[in-house]
Amino acid sequence: MRILDIIEKKKNKIALSDEEIQFWIDGVTDGTIPDYQTSSLLMAIVLNGMDEHETAKLAEAMMNSGDVIDLSCIDGIKSDKHSTGGVGDKTSIALGAMVAACGLKVAKMSGRGLGHTGGTLDKLESIEGFNCFLSEEEFKKQVDEIGLSIIGQTGELVPADKKLYALRDVTSTVNSIPLIASSIMSKKLASGSNTILLDVKYGEGAFMKTIEDAKELANAMISIGNKLGRNTMAMITDMNQPLGNTIGNALEVQEAIETVKGNGPKDFTELCMCAGEIMIMQAKLAESKEEARKMLEEAISSGKAYEKLLEMVKAQGGNVEQIKNTDLLPKSKFITEMKSKENGYIGNIHSMQLGILAMYLGAGRQTKEDSINYAVGLKMNVKKGNQVKEGDLLCTVYHDEELSQDWINKFYDTFTYSQEKVNSIPIVEDILG
Ligand code: URA
């Protein structure tokens, strides 16, 4: 087999065979196919696409390029969830505790953030001592015993994706549904859970800008999961404004804690409840969504979800006193209130820009080497559609350095106002699968 023939085939819009896809991914993994030929094939895929069968084969070949976690030693159905990423997304922390309190086994491997605020691991590391790097054995033992563990990737998961993603990043070949779907799903498949819930975000602060694109990506990932024997479902959720009220690591942990205690913001709580219902149904622990919702409500009102979060933090070496008393979480030097300069209804809130402003405060990384300031971030006081008057509080900023005039100008630019009533957007747009 020759890679040149495979490139030629895709250039001519002909579907690749399983053997050809396997040959390519083997060559990417062991370095025998040079980057310039892989780049050429990637561009041909961007331009000419892949059908469902090719996409599933690509995900499978990538999954098998490295370690595949075997969770079969843990009793019961193992559940995973994945978000395509958004601003203020602390879902894994609250949702993990909520569904584990309902009896699910959640074995979650998360990532760090680059670009704006931190990823789930960075958020958890704002808790003193929290260890995101358990061995595979410790990870499995914890999931078996308490039903919940969130860690960074163990072993060498999906090395082919690492190489392909690095190449795609510098060859303008990121934006392709089959490439994105197979990249995300190869990692979920290698993580070993039986069920997968995908939270595919759409909107200004998301990877997919429109509902239609988000649905197309979701359907491509559902098809891969189902073809490879995993019960896979997706939620299409709004990212036209930050999720919940907080952006920034310790602030988001605090909001996740409030949410598992039943005091979370309405949109974030609803997203967690909807996701929880689906995960409980996927794990066959309830027969209807209504029953699943009751289980989640009970987990919150009885304090079991909060207890589960405490158990996970304790098991992973974190300081539980900071969970019991969130005043002990990292604190910024300064707190500044940003007040509205106008009257009207809040139209748009540019969540991506707010995420970038939080990054400038130190909440996220611009390069992999940057360190994170856990204390800094934003606490929003308004949502799209709220009516505000001049002088009303828009947001509280937690920061360690003086805010520059440029930062302040950019902050005010993230809001648009309307004199007409603005409808709020439902957080969950659709459920697929
Ligand atoms: N996230 C991934 O893991 N892969 C992609 O291709 C895009 C987003």
TrEMBL record:
Gene Ontology MF terms in the entry: pyrimidine-nucleoside phosphorylase activity
Sequence ranges assigned to domain Pyrimidine nucleoside phosphorylase C-terminal in this UniProt record: 345-418
EC number assigned by the record: 2.4.2.2
Catalysed conversion reaction: 2'-deoxyuridine + phosphate = 2-deoxy-alpha-D-ribose 1-phosphate + uracil; thymidine + phosphate = 2-deoxy-alpha-D-ribose 1-phosphate + thymine; uridine + phosphate = alpha-D-ribose 1-phosphate + uracil
Family recorded in the similarity comment: Belongs to the thymidine/pyrimidine-nucleoside phosphorylase family.
Physiological role: Catalyzes phosphorolysis of the pyrimidine nucleosides uridine, thymidine and 2'-deoxyuridine with the formation of the corresponding pyrimidine base and ribose-1-phosphate.
Subunit structure and binding partners: Homodimer.
Record-given protein name: Pyrimidine-nucleoside phosphorylase
